[in-house]
């Protein structure tokens, strides 16, 4: 049976999916608070430490410490120079510490933040960093980042993690159901369970390979600084996560551009997968993608010791 005998899916199931995604993204409301709540159980909003004759209030960083709050508590009001050297903190950690200096971050010649204006949209500025970009983007700060001057574009790039399952799970279910019906219609298979599961699993494996490739050769590439376009591209797709790792609105890839990429992958994979299982493979890929995002977010939840 050829593809012309397959059940009518209203031109393209993916067209309907993309329309639905665009709608869900546009009606998304109630953004996360502009100020994250710190779960440290101290009495006030101060947690001071000393380092090389300077005082730092790291209260808002406590729940972002990789080891958890209790690893930091014993050092309140103490000098942390020796412990930081003992535990071999990275250059990025020392750079981040400057964010919390009492009296504000010092604008010295070594401070890369003097190269940009944090009161303006950042995407339009990073291109001018040139060869300094690679060093700047891996030097983290604890701030909120605005990408675009346009409120609409900015809105479409801010995504709390829970929006991912809210949008993608209904789409995954839809594609799995429609894909199963299409498989049965084309193959006349009376026992479709195993083939359906295998096709979805194939999609999960495919996404795993795609995700690894993206992280290995795209996300973690190092722009030479000679191409502004390459800097814009790198910062928009991944660099911003290194620059503002604690901006909870930007920890996951936004659904709107993800819908465009998904539709592109759908079209490309239609050249390689048979019509009977194609939608199931896409459903599996989206399941793998959504699961990895949720797991990654859970891995970043603050560690609380009782």
UniProtKB/TrEMBL annotation:
Family annotation (InterPro entries): Cyt_B5-like_heme/steroid-bd (IPR001199), Cyt_B5-like_heme/steroid_sf (IPR036400), Cyt_B5_heme-BS (IPR018506), Scs7 (IPR014430)
GO molecular function, one term: heme binding
Ranges that cross the membrane: 152-178, 190-210
Matches recorded under Gene3D superfamilies: Cytochrome b5-like heme/steroid binding domain (3.10.120.10)
Topology within the bilayer: Multi-pass membrane protein
The entry's keywords: Endoplasmic reticulum, Heme, Iron, Lipid metabolism, Membrane, Metal-binding, Oxidoreductase, Transmembrane, Transmembrane helix
GO biological process entries: fatty acid metabolic process
Domain Cytochrome b5 heme-binding: start-end pairs: 24-106
Keyword Iron annotated: yes
Location of this chain's protein in the cell: Endoplasmic reticulum membrane
GO CC term, one of those recorded: endoplasmic reticulum membrane
UniProt protein name: Cytochrome b5 heme-binding domain-containing protein
């Amino acid at each position: 049976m050829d593809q012309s005998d397959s059940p009518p899916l209203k031109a393209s199931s993916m067209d309907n999916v993309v329309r639905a995604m665009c709608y869900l993204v546009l009606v998304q409301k109630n953004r996360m608070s502009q100020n994250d709540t710190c779960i440290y159980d101290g009495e006030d909003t101060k947690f001071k430490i000393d380092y090389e004759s300077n005082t730092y209030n790291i209260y808002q960083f406590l729940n972002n410490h990789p080891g958890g709050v209790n690893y930091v508590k014993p050092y309140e009001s103490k000098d942390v120079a020796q412990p930081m050297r003992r535990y071999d903190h990275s250059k990025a950690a020392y750079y981040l510490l400057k964010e919390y200096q009492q009296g504000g971050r010092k604008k010295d010649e070594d401070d890369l933040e003097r190269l940009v204006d944090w009161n303006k949209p950042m995407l339009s500025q990073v291109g001018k960093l040139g060869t300094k970009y690679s060093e700047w983007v891996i030097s983290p700060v604890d701030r909120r980042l605005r990408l675009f001057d346009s409120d609409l574009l900015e809105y479409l790039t801010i995504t709390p993690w829970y929006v991912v399952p809210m949008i993608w799970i209904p789409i995954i279910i839809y594609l799995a159901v429609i894909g199963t019906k299409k498989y049965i219609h084309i193959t006349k298979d009376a026992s479709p369970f195993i083939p359906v599961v295998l096709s979805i699993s194939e999609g999960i494996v495919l996404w795993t390979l795609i995700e690894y490739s993206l992280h290995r050769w795209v996300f973690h590439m190092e722009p030479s600084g000679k191409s502004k376009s390459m800097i814009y591209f790198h910062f928009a797709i991944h660099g911003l996560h290194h620059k503002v790792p604690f901006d909870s609105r930007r920890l996951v890839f936004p659904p709107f551009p993800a819908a465009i990429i998904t539709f592109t992958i759908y079209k490309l994979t239609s050249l390689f997968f048979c019509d009977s299982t194609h939608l199931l493979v896409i459903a599996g890929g989206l399941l793998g993608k959504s699961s990895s995002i949720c797991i990654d977010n859970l891995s970043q939840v603050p560690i609380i010791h009782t």
